[in-house]
Amino acid sequence: MRDNKLGxxxxxxxxxxxxxxxxxxxxxxxxxxxxxxxxxxxxxxxNARLQAEAERLGTINFLTPEEAAKAAATNDxxxxxxxxxxxxxxxxxx
Length: 94
Description:
Layout: H1 4-14, E1 19-21, E2 27-29, H2 34-57, H3 65-75, H4 80-90
Antiparallel strand pairs: 1-2
């Protein structure tokens, strides 16, 4: 972040969302723990690739806001599972 104005704009863009895309700069993820932030950052990239592939096949049926909330409620408590695998794979993470 180069200055407070940019930081404020990013914070406003994030608001209560888990991820914000930054044009030309990838994305920013937020969460309740570092594990949740890493989970969201990694799976945002994975899901973006899958969405791009799906778009080539035709119309995509996206989750409704209610379905997305239920998916998050199911996935959020499980972020420690992939975290442990990533830790084992790349070494000690604090």
